[in-house]
Description:
Blueprint: E1 10-13, E2 18-19, E3 22-23, E4 28-31, H1 33-36, H2 40-56, E5 67-70, E6 80-83, H3 87-90, E7 93-105, E8 108-116, E9 127-128, E10 131-134, H4 141-153, E11 163-175, E12 178-190, E13 204-211, H5 212-221, H6 228-240, H7 252-258
Parallel strand pairs: 7-12
Antiparallel strand pairs: 1-4, 2-3, 5-6, 7-8, 7-10, 8-9, 8-13, 11-12
Amino acid sequence: MQDNADLGVFAVQLESCALDGWTQLPGSVTASPELLAMDVPERTDRVGQLMARLHARGLVQGWRDELHPISQFFQTETLFEMERACLPYFGLRGYGIHVNGYVRRDGQLFVWVATRSHNKATYAGLFDQMVAGGLPSGVSLIENVAKEAVEEAGVDLADLDNLTSVGSLSYRYETRKGLSAKSLFLYDLELPPSFTPINLDGEVEEFNLVPVSAVLESIACNLRAWKPNSAVVMIEFAVRHGVINPTCEPDYLRLSKYLR
């Protein structure tokens, strides 16, 4: 795709493409030789110019002003950095963190459910984890968790001593923008019963402390009220903590398989 010849960012082949001898779907987008000859900052700048032009023409929506590293695999060599909103248009994988903030009370498990701000560029007004966010360039996972926990929920850094890394979820799905591919790193954070989240960055309308059983009922009966990946993360939390178990869930084995 050459938006003016001087950019020379991508080479677009519309007829067909193949990988290791296997025929793929018609069409492909590859980095141009000019782009590959540059170093990472130059590639990032050149790609950024093209993405900004596409955004100015209304072809890229939900601009975040947040660069994400583009690499073959997580934590491998960065090829260039790209605006987060552009990733699904190219089917590129993004990474993020989700933190389940929970409380034990009277033998029951409760979770803090966030309602996303109605001003958010994506999934405005939907239910979400207490803390969640994309993983931008130049920030480690634990640094990102701490940053988002403070900004989104007013968590005291001392409370992060209870933070536990519990795994990851990866998925792909088709959107009106293209192929959304994500890998989420999951964390549990047990909080004292006296804790109440306070949003500091304007991205959350409100927080509610809800029994996990009631959250699952909400997902089952009103799925459209949930940010899609946040509903999956919540189900995974319920499976790990035994709220969803083989006794109460006939499709437990299939559900467990899909969560891995």
